[in-house]
Design a protein that fits this description.
alpha+beta, 8 strands, about 160 residues, homodimer, eight-stranded antiparallel β-sheet
Chain lengths: ~160, ~160
């Protein structure tokens, strides 16, 4: 299995996350935009996930929750800027446990022969916001989600790949 | 007249613009959210401005144009993340002359006794996008807009201030 790479330069409000998948980009795009697939990988283990709304169009809004074993929920919401497509998804992102702090996520799916390079480019309003995410074990959580996504992609991908 | 301050650290996808105004924050908020006022200051001289749409609510979208003397237009659009209020306006921003490049603008209005400190915190998807804005004379353009806003505020503010 490939691994997830994190770039978080000091003193800059940005994180760039990359991961190579043995899957076509259309499948990865579907996994990011079909709520039935999203709930199967986006929450890091052992959290579960529910989706309140997912208006997949330019200007549409989305909201979902992660749930821990004690029934505590962690809710997130945002907006899609531009029409989401395999060429890219641009969205705002806010964790409701820390209202008023917004980041901008740009997700791209680049075909590289038989594999697809997934990139999450995340910019924050401040370096402090970025650092707080890093201190909240973002790297571990996102890495775990990416592993789950790789497992889902393997189950969904054509046998020939 | 006060002046506009720019902070653009090297190698970081961010610009922070501040300007102190001799005006109450509610007036400055109005100037940012009433299209009839917006067209009086937002375009740098000698451009004029028209507003296509300005849906001032959480998830609402906006689009406007700047026009030069030869009738060429420069269009911009984006979305409001969260309910715009005097506490702050968070919006996505895209120049249609360079589609697919999106920035996140956070505008705040902080009362400081008789004056208000306006801050535009702008984060870009990449340092290259930020640098391109800086090379496109962003500092001069925004400074000019801020001067126009100061003039508008002086005309609108109560005589007692």
């Amino acid at each position: 299995m490939t691994s997830t790479h994190f770039i978080a330069e000091p003193h800059t409000p940005q994180v760039v996350i990359t991961r190579e998948f043995n899957a076509p980009r259309d499948l990865l795009f579907r996994a990011h935009t079909d709520p039935d697939l999203l709930v199967q990988w986006l929450a890091p283990r052992p959290l579960t996930m529910t989706v309140d709304r997912f208006d997949l169009w330019d200007g549409g809004s989305w909201r979902y929750q992660h749930w821990d074993a004690d029934g505590r929920d962690y809710s997130f919401h945002g907006l899609f800027h531009g029409e989401p497509s395999p060429d890219g998804i641009v969205q705002t992102f806010e964790f409701e446990g820390r209202p008023g702090h917004v980041s901008l996520w740009t997700t791209t799916f680049a075909e590289q022969g038989d594999t697809t390079l997934l990139t999450h480019n995340v910019v924050y309003q401040t370096v402090e916001d970025r650092d707080l995410d890093l201190e909240s074990r973002m790297e571990e959580s996102v890495g775990d989600s990416m592993d789950r996504l790789a497992g889902l992609a393997a189950r969904l991908a054509p046998v020939s790949r």
